[in-house]
Amino acid sequence: MSKKIALITGANKGIGFETARQLGKQGVSIIAASRNKERGIAAVEKLHAEGIDAEFLQLDVDNDAEIQFAFEFIQNKYGKLDILINNAGIQVEHGDWGVNNTPTISEKALRETFDTNFFQVLKLTNTLLPLIRKSEAGRIVNLSSILGSLTLHSDPSSPIYNSKLFAYDTSKTALNSYTIHLAAALQDTPIKVNSAHPGWVKTDLGSDAAPMEVEDGAKTSVALALLEADGPTGKYIHLGQELPW
Ligand SMILES: NC(=O)c1ccc[n+]([C@@H]2O[C@H](COP(=O)([O-])OP(=O)(O)OC[C@H]3O[C@@H](n4cnc5c(N)ncnc54)[C@H](OP(=O)(O)O)[C@@H]3O)[C@@H](O)[C@H]2O)c1
User: With bands split at pLDDT 50, 70 and 90, how would you rate the model's confidence at 94?
Assistant: First the structure.
């Protein structure tokens, strides 16, 4: 069987880099996509130093021309894509996590967040889908967050009830809906599409206050990328456990 090829967005640091490292250690060929060439190449050099088969791809997910280039690059070089990990994500609201900013959120913050965390994920995924259909066992992993859960946000007893950053949270809710809809659209194919909640992880986005180390934070993405044929699709998962939408 030919080697599996995985494209990971935002692979230069944080959960994306660690996901590339862990998947690479399992023998997957990594296309480490990063918007910044210097940081992306530095990340790939670190992967090479660990004996991982990895290459850099310049991909700002907000850039439609680079999305098209990614399609052409993978089509010409591999003719298929086995794993797509939509990991790149932003949180532009830098206020106090305990302050609900719903009444004051700016349209700019909303649009910026939705562009990267939702619209461009759709664009990249739908563009690459013809290549994923060529895989024997395509896997799509959307990096969501527990903060996208409407069930937990509407439950005053839930641990996230008082963490309401409107743009970030709703962009992940929309992403979850894409997971459900795309999984249903692909139900008659071998392709599996799932949303991952990595946990609250020590990264630039998660901050030093987060309880989870990045090694554990990448585990959900890796597991969903390597699901067997009888694994779930259209689910919202954290470390093997299903979360409520
Ligand atoms: N950390 C947590 O606690 C946590 C919890 C739940 C969900 N998540 C999700 O997990 C994913 C990874 O987060 P992280 O904690 O690893 O964050 P991070 O350390 O801030 O890394 C984010 C990555 O996304 C990249 N990125 C952002 N915008 C991009 C764009 N337009 N094009 C290409 N790359 C872009 C960043 O690139 P640059 O280096 O160029 O900025 C970086 O590589 C995100 O989707 C996040 O929402 C994280």
Answer: confident
Residue 163's CB: how many other CB atoms inside 10 A?
19
In the chain, the percentage of residues whose pLDDT exceeds 90 is 97
Amino acid (1-letter code) at residue 182: L
**Which domain, by its residues, includes 212?**
5-242
pLDDT at 1 > cutoff 90 = no
Q: For residues 91 and 171, give the distance between their C-alpha atoms in angstroms, rounded to a whole number.
A: 10
Whole-number Å distance, alpha carbon 92 to ligand 1 midpoint, is 11
Number of domains in the chain: 1
Please, which residues have CB within 8 angstroms of residue 24's CB and are 6 or more apart in sequence? Answer: 30, 47, 50, 52, 53, 54
- Look at ligand 1, atom 44, and give the residue with the nearest C-alpha: 89
Q: Name the β-bridge partners of 141.
A: 85, 194
Provide residues with CB under 6 Å of ligand 1. 9-10, 12-16, 35-36, 39, 60-62, 87-90, 116, 143, 145, 197-198, 200-201, 203-206, 210
Q: What spacing in Å lies between the alpha carbon of 188 and ligand 1's midpoint?
A: 31
d(CA 33, CA 12): 7
- Write the pLDDT tens digit of every residue in 182-206: 999 999 999 999 999 999 999 999 9
Q: Tokens 């619209």 label which residue?
A: 119
User: What CATH number did the domain enclosing 209 receive?
Assistant: 3.40.50.720
The answer to whether the CB of 175 falls within 8 A of the CB of 101 is: no
